[in-house]
Amino acid sequence: MRYARCAHPFTEKADLSMTTAELLDALIDIRGKLTEGRSLCDLTWLRVGGPAELLFQPADLEDLQNFLKQLPEEVPVFPMGVGSNLIVRDGGLPGVVIRLGRGFNGIDVNGNTVTAGTAALDAHVAKKAADAGLDLTFLRTIPGSIGGAVRMNAGCYGAYVADVFVSATVVLRNGSLQELTAEDLQFQYRQTELPEGAVLVAATFTAESGDAEALRRRMADQIAKRDSSQPTKDRSAGSTFRNPAGFSSTGKADDVMELKAWKVIDDAGMRGAILGGAQMSEMHSNFLINAGGATAADLEGLGELVRKKVYENSGIWLEWEIKRIGKALTV
Ligand SMILES: Cc1cc2nc3c(=O)[nH]c(=O)nc-3n(C[C@H](O)[C@H](O)[C@H](O)COP(=O)(O)OP(=O)(O)OC[C@H]3O[C@@H](n4cnc5c(N)ncnc54)[C@H](O)[C@@H]3O)c2cc1C
Q1: What pTM was computed for the model?
Q2: What CATH number belongs to 253-325?
Q3: Whether the CB of 83 sits within 6 Å of ligand 1
Q4: Count of CB atoms within 10 A of residue 143's CB?
Q5: Correct CATH for 104-213 of 1.50.10.10, 1.10.10.10, 3.40.50.360, 3.30.465.10
Q6: Which is nearest to 9 in space by CA: 43, 51, 55?
Q7: 317 near 263, Cβ under 8 Å?
Q8: Which of 61, 140, 151, 243 maximizes ligand 1 atoms within 8 Å of its Cβ, making it the mutation to test the pocket?
Q9: How far apart are CA 278 and CA 43, in angstroms?
Q10: Which portions of the chain are predicted below pLDDT 50?
């Protein structure tokens, strides 16, 4: 992994009826860790971004519910996973960022279903399922948590979370618990619908049976395949842009081609392009990497430059797949 330095910006405050100090004083019986002005830089894969006004790491489910119940409703809440699909802007995030940890990472196998806490890593869930002879192998090479996987309908090698999803449990912004079905979540490509501020805490999947050894071999093959085609040793957030929907150069349906984002980026001459510490990977041109010392502004700026060049070259506006959150640094 290349070295990437975190920038040191300041926090933007949420527009609250009370100060952060008053808010902290008002919260009763919180057992988790609440940190003011916590940098999110080291909590994201790209190693950029400013601080959360408050970062809350609940001890367990009851603690999370108690916290959200007491938190004034005007305080914005952003649940994050392990930050493998995020650019946090340099000015940071107003309100509360919630990051789940040990109290939310259990994995239980029961017959052909697997229930995991949303802090569990996708790779751990895939391995534990394989040990039990269940095929969730597609999760093995996705570097996120189960919360992020459900939220983003993560997928690869022909399988998406939506294909195996049974149900999920969320804590709503008012602290109450709710079970969500696939219909509630409305799975789409790399996207679901979740109520504002809701935190996913567990998810249940169904999986086909398979031979444990064969499943392990498949996962090893997938790791090797990824390492040979993607910059897995660099700081990235996976695919930067969605693959454009079918595009017809003549406007006729017969000419519709499935376009790959990396191809239109290559065609626009942007493979390897650099802005500050940000670079479009030489190995895979749809991967935006922190090549060393990048700020979020470098990364987002390069992404926007790529979008512009691709539009000028092929008439296609690429859509971001990486989520960009927070405020730009104002000087
Ligand atoms: C090298 C690399 C390869 C990748 N390959 C793939 C791939 O093949 N397929 C793929 O789909 N993705 C891929 N990704 C992207 C990323 O790993 C996935 O989108 C992943 O599911 C994000 O999970 P996370 O825990 O990191 O979520 P984060 O990046 O932290 O957050 C992503 C979104 O999920 C939400 N979220 C996270 N946890 C919760 C929760 N508990 N409750 C509510 N919302 C939550 C956040 O609010 C945010 O909107 C790759 C990334 C990298 C760095």
Answers
A1: 0.94
A2: 3.90.78.10
A3: yes
A4: 20
A5: 3.30.465.10
A6: 51
A7: no
A8: 151
A9: 18
A10: 1-4, 248, 251
